[in-house]
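On to our target:
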Amino acid sequence: MLEQVLRRACLALGIVALAAADASADEMQCPGAPTSVISPTKDLAARICAAAIWAEAFFVRCGLVQERTLSIDVVDRLTHPLGLPVIATFDATKWKIQISTYEAVQSIILPGSVYRMLPPRDVYDSLVVHEVAHAIFREHVHDLNIPVSAHEYVAYAIQIASLPPEARDTFLLGFPRQTPSGFGIFNEVYLAMGPLRFGANAYRHLFKDNMSCQTIRRIAAGEADFPLPLE
């Protein structure tokens, strides 16, 4: 499904690029979405737009519409305050995502990561979806103080949902277990110790029935029983 969105977005962006003569050469407005991308290449910008549009469409189906304008910047080097390389970040104070270049992401992913078993382009697309999911979900949380693990539960589950079926199956096979019955395991310690394992089980839990949209709305409203952060 994401590949179909990519093809449609590229066609639409070709039309937009011709029409927007006064636009910056390295900034692209995603068609039909309140999202813009600054990228070294138009091909990468189009791919990021497609992933962002997929994420937006997912939330629209759940009745959670993206209202705020989101900007996505592709950067050569993104670092944590401690100096470690980072794949991507979402800054809720500026409503801005920064994501490392495709090449930088390949160098950051560890050799033993399950990501290495997936097509690299699929992984990159899904990482964009993850950050856009953070942004749109945060918009609907408003000022509620819900746990970080709840935000990551939603972002990871939607990220994994965006993967092509074969890649998604490979990802999940890397973390075999029964579907969790509740939110109890999704605490910040579990997230810190194994974020991709956390993500695999978030996907299993959110999509175990046909209630995923209702569950996301409950989480956004602070009505889901996630474990409280550790003091």
In short: The two ends are 42 Å apart (CA to CA). The CA atoms of residues 102 and 121 lie 8 Å apart.
